[in-house]
Amino acid sequence: MNHACRTQELVALSGAHTLGSKGFGNPNVFDNAYYKILLDKPWTSSGSMSSMIGLPSDHALVEDDECLRWIKVYAGDQLKFFGDFANAYVNLVDSGAVWGSGEI
Ligand code: HEM
């Protein structure tokens, strides 16, 4: 049983947004670039493409003290991020979350 709190799991799972088109590092590489870039708040610099980085949910994480604490932990410790992401993802699936219709 994993006793991580829900806030920690939210921050760990959100790290999946390092993948894809929202501007957090290499779109094809799963790493902790998401957290390093969140700490820089590039979306606050106006008049450049960096203002396009991230979703509203990504931006909101940095404004919450408890989330920010985990962002700093994962920015500094990629292995901990990998471990916590894996645990949080298993908890998510165990709680009944499914993709789309639930058929694979
Ligand atoms: C905190 C709640 C979340 C919200 C509000 C959210 C919202 C979104 C949205 C709107 C996009 C599309 C971005 C775009 O326009 O390109 C997106 C992309 C994505 N999300 Fe989430 N998401 C959340 C959590 C998660 C979680 C928990 C995971 C997986 C564990 C995840 C994995 C992804 C991935 C991999 C992409 C990129 C897909 C691609 O670019 O092809 N997200 N998310």
Automatic annotation (TrEMBL):
Please verify whether the record's keywords include Protein transport.
no
The GO biological-process annotations, alphabetized, read as: cellular response to oxidative stress; hydrogen peroxide catabolic process; response to reactive oxygen species
Name by which UniProt lists this protein: L-ascorbate peroxidase
Which GO molecular function annotations are given, in alphabetical order? heme binding; L-ascorbate peroxidase activity; metal ion binding
TM spans (from-to): none
- Which UniProt keywords are listed? Calcium, Iron, Metal-binding, Oxidoreductase, Peroxidase
- Which principal EC class is assigned to this enzyme? oxidoreductase
Gene label: APX6
Q: Which organism is it from?
A: Platanthera zijinensis
Q: State its cofactor.
A: heme b
**By its UniProt entry, which PANTHER family does this protein fall under?**
L-ASCORBATE PEROXIDASE 6-RELATED (PTHR31356:SF8), THYLAKOID LUMENAL 29 KDA PROTEIN, CHLOROPLASTIC-RELATED (PTHR31356)
- EC numbers: 1.11.1.11
SUPFAM superfamilies recorded: Heme-dependent peroxidases (SSF48113)
